[in-house]
Amino acid sequence: DSITVAELAEQLQVSSTEIIKKLMSLGIMATLNQSLDVETVELVALEFDVTVEVKSEEEEKVDELDFDDKPEDLKPRSPVVTVLGHVDHGKTTLLDSIRNTKVTTGEAGGITQHIGAYQVRANENKITFIDTPGHAAFTAMRARGAQVTDIAILVVAADDGVMPQTVEAINHVKAAGVPIIVAVNKIDRPTANVDKIKQEMANYNLVPEEWGGDTVFAEVSALKGEGIDNLLEMIVLVSEMQELKANPNALASGTVIESKLDKGRGPVATVLIRRGTLHVGDSIASGTAYGKVRAMINDKGKNIKKAKPSTPVEILGLSEAPQAGESFRVMENDKTARNLAQQKLNKDKNELMQNNSAVSLDDLFKSIQEGEIKDLNIIVKADVQGSCEAIKHSLEKLSDEKVNVKVIHTGVGAVNENDVMLASASSAIIIGFNVRPDTSAQKTAKKDGVDLRLYRIIYDAIEDVKKAMQGLLEPEY
Ligand code: GDP
């Protein structure tokens, strides 16, 4: 893992001469084809305001895996569907109704298991439904970078109409760029008014085809099981337009959609395969979890040996329960899987440490003793400029050989969110004198662990900092 001067120049989109000049300024004489080590590359890149990301062997492998599908390797896969809509409009009933009419009667074998997703057959096609309705789960997954949904079913009760969560769902789904099918539910109700729903939906650019739009509407009664087959047909139709494909002949990768720690079985994760085929015995990594797939159970409660793209399966054998929305992937062997998980763990730790660099007066003494801090950064907000100056002056005088007290910012007025962000970014504490924080500042301070202290008497503020430096401060409760 090294790079030549010429290659670096190309990556940074500057001339080789510029790179060589920078290297010279760093005291390094280099030729065009000379290999540079990681530290040197980082130094040079910094000069061009670029930060270098060094990838481990395992991570490089992962990148390669993601790009090497040829068009001829891609095979059609079934769509993954999420059901969204306002509370009480019938999402859960619809999911149950589809499962009950299709899974138990349609296919051989056992009782359906709630594993977080299920697959049904609609004629020759299969459809995968995510079993957790609502946009909270949908968006939580997206926040982790997982887009598992191919089609969103927006459920609207025909006797009610477009409600706040309907609108929220529309916005979330549109933001994700996922096609919407509107399921107008509860058509069995005497007060059902399908036309009214269509009109309201048109206001959100969901215009039915018969009105010249391109949104598919399906009328259903989830409770009575009416219109379910038609809805499934519509899903197949919309998915065919998407031409969903995946390479089934690859090491499997995908997304965790649910996980739990089971008393008898240990960590259990339901995963949705997006690419490749997952086999019992595969070595997998998911976030900080890793392990060999000991067993796979499908949504019918059956043990299976392999699972193809768009199939949800419960897997056993992981070292811990990974988070929903986390990706998983099969690695060549146990060792590389464990390494990848270990690297993730280290990254998380580093991030945690960076986030935890918040300083507080309560543990100031300990931090000083452990050599963790040399500067005590303080932000002072006060009601008048005179107080700011007085406090700043007195605080900075407290500096001793172990710690340097630095007031990095002063200002007149309430403690605001900018103050807190500054404090968070520079590991500072905030002292407010005769002022109060506004609500957003208060919230952010709490979230980021910023120590924010309010005083009415200058002497008290100075005394607290002094005591904290000596480890004599009484903790605040
Ligand atoms: P969710 O909050 O969107 O998951 O809604 P539920 O599935 O829990 O349904 C809310 C209520 O509406 C329940 O009492 C259901 O029995 C009822 N419900 C759902 N679908 C229908 C339907 O098609 N017709 C009628 N009449 N009631 C329904």
UniProtKB/TrEMBL annotation:
UniProt feature coiled coil, ranges: none
Region (G-domain): 79-227
MF (Gene Ontology): GTP binding; GTPase activity; translation initiation factor activity
Keyword GTP-binding: yes
GO cellular component: cytosol
Annotated ranges, domain Tr-type G: 76-245
Compartments where located: Cytoplasm
Main location class: cytoplasm
Keywords from the named record: Cytoplasm, GTP-binding, Initiation factor, Nucleotide-binding, Protein biosynthesis
Domain of life: Bacteria
Chain residues that bind GTP: 85-92, 131-135, 185-188
Function summary: One of the essential components for the initiation of protein synthesis. Protects formylmethionyl-tRNA from spontaneous hydrolysis and promotes its binding to the 30S ribosomal subunits. Also involved in the hydrolysis of GTP during the formation of the 70S ribosomal complex.
UniProt similarity note: Belongs to the TRAFAC class translation factor GTPase superfamily. Classic translation factor GTPase family. IF-2 subfamily.
UniProt protein name: Translation initiation factor IF-2
Taxonomic lineage of the native organism: Bacteria, Bacillati, Bacillota, Clostridia, Eubacteriales
Name of the gene this protein is made from: infB
Entire-sequence positions represented here: 121 to 597 of 695
